[in-house]
Amino acid sequence: MRIQRIDVYQLRYGLHDKRYAWSGGHAVTGFTTTIVKISTDDGIAGYGEVCPLGSGYMEAHPAGVPAGIRELGPVLLGRDPTKPREINAAMDAALGGHHYVKSPVDIACWDILGQAAGLPVATMLGGRLVDDYPLYRAISQGSPEAMAEDVQRYRAEGYRRFQLKVGANPDDDVRRVEAALAVTQPGDVVVADANTGWLPHQAIRLVHALRDRDYYLEQPCTTLAECLTVRAHTPQPMVIDELITGVGPFLDAWEKGAMDGINIKISRVGGLTKAKQLRDLCESLGIVMTIEDSWGGDLATTAIAHLAGSTRPEYLFTSTDFNSYVDVTIADDAPRREEGRLRVPSGPGLGIRVDDQRLGSPLLSIS
Ligand code: MG
Question: Of 80, 136, 205, 353, which alpha carbon lies 20 to 30 A from 188's?
Answer without folding.
Answer: 205
